[in-house]
């Protein structure tokens, strides 16, 4: 199956109060097939709305064009005010690579969008970040300097000729900045103060740009310059972070508003902790935070693990638990409910139909299995039994990590539990994927077979679906085999009070391997690629023999301790 190229678009519109205006813009985005609107985040105080949508490149740039066009028609910048810096009705419109696409490709799409909009809309367009045409235009803040109010004079300067579109001042629409950039997190941290000056002091401590060096008094002292007469700066603690302090009347608090431009260099929790440290040093306290727009799942999982490690607690817990820890530790629910299903990008992209079985409770799952429907069947059950087996090993590891008297071994068992959780999640995904592979065969069977061409199309579809229906249970076998070292280790060194749980885990995993192999074998009978069939069956038999051997070894250890 070919992998789709996905890009994300996060336009910022200079309207955050009139929901009718915002809806007209988002309706334009949703009118394009192949685009999914992920998030609409209006801010009353900033009078700005951040919209996030994703899709394949061509539909995304078409949706972006329609949104920019609509914003230029219904937002009047000559009457707009707000806390956030801005220069246009559509202030900024970045494109971001999400999956199976390079930054160079995204840059080309950014220019394609700007050229199309520039030709049609009579708006000045500037390119920034990776799509910038000049080095001095890479930084958004540099392009936006002077904001809307200074735009008319700026356009008279030949150095500020737009990259695309009209060089004439458009009093209604202003100007728009289009670019290509890596994933950016817009993040606000709340302080227990209303003082913008104090908030800015914290912001200057943490942002990469830091603050200007001064002699004596850090606020009023004489500026220290280099040999070229340029001010020297004391760098902040967080690389890839831009930050300012502001007061939000809606919440009656001052915030540190930041953009984290490189989450690999400065993760979300690192920025939070640095802010907290600076605030405490200045007699302030962080009370919570808020995410503007969406965030990758990894960011939340990494934050959850970080805060658990601070407590010397095992990080080998479920994805849901890690997210819960992250939300509470970062105070993401202070100003309102934090809905992970809406704020995490991977969750937004998931199709509800892709996890029908996993969304059921135990009784519903058993009832569905026992019904007259042929799916879920043995393949899904094998994956689920395997996930239960490794879940028991994760339980033993977590109990061992928190066992009284074993405090110095918490990290050792945490590592085992974390590995177990990863394998558990892989097997759980295969529960639904096995049913999906069965349905793929059924759908291929239903294709028309009248003409020669239709017969050929149907035959190929059946072969492709059969291949898929072999790959899924074979993956169940491979993943289940990866669980044995963990189960064996937990039977040897884990909490002795839970040794039988490790034994039951081994029994479950052996059932998963054997059950999945039955599905592999029955599906290979319908595949024409006999070389592939021979290879798969040979590998499968080897795994069966190894599974039987490992189960016996683990049960021997378990029985010796009972």
The stretches of 5 or more residues where confidence is low (pLDDT under 50) are: none
Helix fraction? 40-55%
The sequence of SSEs as H and E is EEHEEHEHEHHEEHEEEEHEHHHHHHHHHH
Q: Care to count the β-strands?
A: 13
Short description:
By secondary structure, the chain is of the alpha+beta class. Helices cover 51% and strands 14% of the residues.
Topology:
Layout: E1 6-9, E2 12-13, H1 19-30, E3 35-43, E4 48-55, H2 57-74, E5 90-99, H3 103-121, E6 125-129, H4 140-144, H5 151-156, E7 176-180, E8 185-191, H6 196-206, E9 211-212, E10 233-234, E11 241-248, E12 253-260, H7 268-281, E13 286-292, H8 297-310, H9 319-330, H10 340-343, H11 345-349, H12 362-370, H13 378-401, H14 410-445, H15 452-493, H16 499-524, H17 530-561
Parallel strand pairs: 5-7, 6-7
Antiparallel strand pairs: 1-4, 1-5, 2-4, 2-5, 3-4, 8-12, 8-13, 9-10, 11-12
Descriptive notes:
This protein has 562 residues and is of the alpha+beta class. The protein folds into 3 domains: 175 residues, Formiminotransferase-cyclodeaminase, Chain B, domain 1, CATH 3.30.990; 164 residues, Alpha-Beta Plaits (2-Layer Sandwich); 211 residues, Up-down Bundle (Four Helix Bundle (Hemerythrin (Met), subunit A)), CATH 1.20.120.680. The chain has 17 helices and 13 strands. The strands form 3 sheets. Strands 1, 2, 3, 4, 5, 6 and 7 form a 7-stranded mixed β-sheet that branches. A hairpin with a 4-residue loop joins strand 11 and strand 12. The protein is globular and about 80 Å long. The relative contact order is 0.07.
